[in-house]
């Protein structure tokens, strides 16, 4: 609620600055636009996830949730009762962006994926079903949500997901050791400037030339815009793509440095 006006203004700025594929002169990015962003091919997983999402959106079951999104230390955490439907409505990736995650994974073939922010597991499922042979490490601070996600993964018959419960800053060091390398990251939790940069810097420890980073909610607040600016100006980042809701970052040293804003 707090940032609605901010996001609306940011969206108008995005509309005025964003271009179509014809404004893209990088062959690498042009191919992503054509083969990923413009790809409208159906996949059986999309229908399966849609059925699960609909079930969650109709569930009146009350669960005790821990809200980790408000601050950096334990004192800021809030416990409350919410129904599953409202957790799904507020946190799950939209179908449009879920399909985008799926297609990015399908296109880049990552073997090791790290997700920060499992919630009920909808985005995790898009990642996992796009790459059945990859390993998806996902972290969620709220035990109840993580348990609910686990039963969603069972329902969908997905077994390539490794769940971690705990705060990102506490869990990441061990997860980084366990994962060993990072091909693809989806950062979708604790949307503050400090946490976004801290998580990015931690994950960079196991990143390589072909690692792909996806950030959610890059224009959600002044802090998130500042974080997106800082990430895309980092000397290790060569190409970034701003799709408004999500931002994609590449480290490929063979590409010339460029920031793209693309209409999606
Ligand atoms: C936007 S939701 C994730 C939605 C999920 N990726 C999806 O699309 O289905 C963000 C999640 O991150 C968790 N989270 C936020 N800050 C966290 C932190 N510092 N440590 C652990 N989990 C955190 C929240 O509990 C919440 O469930």
Largest sheet: 8 strands, mixed
Separation, N- and C-terminal Cα atoms:
24 Å
Strand content: 15-25%
Q: What small-molecule ligands were found?
A: S-adenosylmethionine
Briefly note the structural class of the backbone: alpha/beta
CATH superfamily: Vaccinia Virus protein VP39
* CATH class wording: Alpha Beta
Along the chain, the helix and strand elements come as HHHEEHHEHEHEHEHEHEEE
When the domains are counted, the total is 1
SS elements, strand count: 10
Question: What order do the helices and strands come in, and which of them pair?
Answer:
Elements: H1 4-17, H2 27-37, H3 44-57, E1 62-67, E2 78-83, H4 84-91, H5 95-108, E3 112-116, H6 122-130, E4 135-140, H7 143-155, E5 161-165, H8 168-179, E6 184-187, H9 193-204, E7 212-216, H10 222-232, E8 239-242, E9 246-250, E10 258-261
Parallel strand pairs: 3-4, 3-6, 4-5, 6-7, 8-10
Antiparallel strand pairs: 1-2, 7-9, 8-9
Helix pairs in contact: 2-5, 3-4, 3-6, 5-6, 8-9, 9-10
Describe the structure in brief.
With 264 residues, this protein is of the alpha/beta class.
Structure description:
With 264 residues, the chain is an alpha/beta fold. It has one domain (4-44, 93-261): Rossmann fold (3-Layer(aba) Sandwich). The protein is built from ten helices and ten strands. The chain has helices spanning 4-17, 27-37, 44-57, 84-91, 95-108, 122-130, 143-155, 168-179, 193-204, 222-232; strands at 62-67, 78-83, 112-116, 135-140, 161-165, 184-187, 212-216, 239-242, 246-250, 258-261. The strands form two sheets. Strands 5-4-3-6-7-9-8-10 form an eight-stranded mixed sheet, sandwiched between helices. Strands 1-2 form a two-stranded antiparallel ribbon. Helix 9 (193-204) links the parallel strand 6 (184-187) and strand 7 (212-216). The longest helix has 14 residues, at 4-17. The relative contact order is 0.15. The structure holds S-adenosylmethionine. S-adenosylmethionine (SAM) is lined by residues 68-69, 91-93, 117, 119-120, 122-123, 139-142, 145, 167-168, 188-190.
């Amino acid at each position: 609620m707090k940032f609605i006006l901010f996001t609306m203004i940011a969206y108008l700025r995005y509309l005025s600055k964003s271009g179509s594929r014809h404004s893209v002169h990088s062959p690498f990015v042009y191919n992503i636009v054509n083969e990923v962003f413009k790809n409208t091919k159906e996949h059986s997983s999309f229908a399966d996830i849609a059925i699960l999402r609909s079930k969650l959106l109709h569930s009146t079951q009350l669960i005790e949730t821990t809200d980790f999104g408000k601050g950096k230390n334990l004192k800021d955490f809030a416990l409350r009762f919410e129904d599953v439907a409202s957790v799904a409505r507020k946190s799950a990736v939209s179908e449009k962006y879920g399909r985008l995650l799926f297609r990015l994974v399908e296109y880049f073939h990552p073997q090791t994926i790290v997700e920060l922010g499992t919630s009920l597991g909808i985005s995790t499922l898009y990642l996992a079903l796009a790459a059945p042979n990859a390993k998806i490490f996902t972290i969620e601070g709220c035990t109840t949500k993580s348990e609910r996600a686990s039963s969603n993964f069972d329902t969908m018959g997905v077994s390539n997901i490794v769940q971690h419960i705990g705060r990102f800053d506490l869990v990441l060091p061990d997860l980084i050791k366990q994962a060993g390398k990072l091909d693809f990251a989806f950062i979708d939790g604790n949307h503050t400037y400090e946490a976004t940069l801290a998580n990015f810097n931690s994950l960079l420890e196991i990143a390589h030339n072909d690692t792909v980073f996806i950030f959610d909610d890059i224009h959600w607040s002044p802090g998130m815009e500042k974080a997106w600016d800082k990430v895309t100006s980092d000397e290790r980042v060569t190409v970034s793509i701003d799709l408004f809701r999500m931002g994609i970052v590449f480290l490929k040293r063979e590409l010339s440095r460029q920031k793209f804003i693309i209409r999606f």
